[in-house]
Amino acid sequence: DVKVTQSSRYLVKRTGEKVFLECVQDMDHENMFWYRQDPGLGLRLIYFSYDVKMKEKGDIPEGYSVSREKKERFSLILESASTNQTSMYLCASTPITAGVSSSTDTQYFGPGTRLTVL
Amino acid sequence: KQEVTQIPAALSVPEGENLVLNCSFTDSAIYNLQWFRQDPGKGLTSLLLIQSSQREQTSGRLNASLDKSSGRSTLYIAASQPGDSATYLCAGLYNTDKLIFGTGTRLQVFP
Question: What is the C-alpha separation between A44 and A8, in angstroms, rounded?
Answer without folding.
Answer: 20
